[in-house]
């Protein structure tokens, strides 16, 4: 029944392609440090005296920026760090709109950053949640083949998972599927008991708390619009041009620093461009909509249930995912979004699904990088540039799924990169 439902849903999605409709987008901008007075500035969990020069400024308060900020300040407690976020609150975009899965690392090309950082990231994520007392569930995952033609792809995924050192993987037959998911039918499945679920925004906010407790400063409602060399030392400064990079917002407020790290998610290409680095790869936003299973149908799904990925599509496929609040989501689809941070309600009215699903599900928008030739960039991408400003900047250019799972490992890797590129 579930497979029929998933297939039907997939067919509908394929048939529909691009969609339009209403959209909700919230964008806030405001002034922060420097000459301005607004914006929220906090350090160590409390308001501080205003300061506008830092050793390192991080742009973007999603899970990648926060994990990296945390890692950097824990390694370098004597340096000063500021994290700038354009929204009023942290992690309200991709990091607050996702499937909430702790991926185990099955799908990714062996040796790629995605494979390595996901496998390490999942282990670190479980340890971190344990240590901080954050709720998670290791509820497992089945990737289910329903057609004979999917079997070779399923077996190839199994081999890939083994190459990536994914824990506890096994292949199960139709009986094994029923034992794990009594309402799921398939002919063969890949069983990944190490896969789990967590509220990634809660995790991201905890990284932010760690950062602030270690002395880091978070400034919200500060949209960085310009990254350039400062022409003169900051007002009242006795340190001359120790902080040569100026980050400005629309109001002209300025924050100074020695080095910049951007983790701008859906805006990573624009942040790269304004720092004099390449705009390529560009970001293409893909919206993913979810449907929510009615509470009386929750018994149908125990863990994550995924299809065998269709090689014609770049994402993992529409899946059933239990949420930490007890609800069960079906999704996400992947349609080109007309706005980078547009989360419009999906207009879907298939009668067949009316019994089981409520239609007003949430949505997320994926930041997916596209190269010059129009190909989707598969792996994570981190780069900088040359020139006065660009040589002091490092950009996280492409951090799609499973970047939430990988976030602590990405933080470690970027911190290594920052240490090797810059003289901290
Ligand atoms: C539908 C969907 C499902 C997903 N499911 C999973 C999953 O199950 N498991 C998993 O591991 N991953 C999943 N992912 C991927 C994961 O959510 C993202 O890879 C991760 O959240 C990316 O984090 P980020 O910090 O790079 O980006 P974001 O969370 O988007 O953060 C970027 C931040 O930068 C800020 N910003 C941008 N420009 C500026 C500026 N000029 N000035 C100041 N601030 C700026 C933004 O406001 C934003 O807060 C999913 C993603 C989507 C969209």
UniProtKB/TrEMBL annotation:
Keywords: FAD, Flavoprotein, Oxidoreductase. Signal peptide: none annotated. Residues 55-416 form the FAD dependent oxidoreductase domain. It is an enzyme of class 1 (oxidoreductase). Residues 21-46 are annotated as: Disordered. NCBIfam families: PRK11728.1. Pfam families: DAO. It catalyses: (S)-2-hydroxyglutarate + A = 2-oxoglutarate + AH2. GO terms for molecular function: (S)-2-hydroxyglutarate dehydrogenase activity. The keyword Nucleus does not apply. This is L-2-hydroxyglutarate dehydrogenase, mitochondrial. Its EC number is 1.1.99.2. Belongs to the L2HGDH family. The keyword Metal-binding does not apply. Its cofactor is FAD.
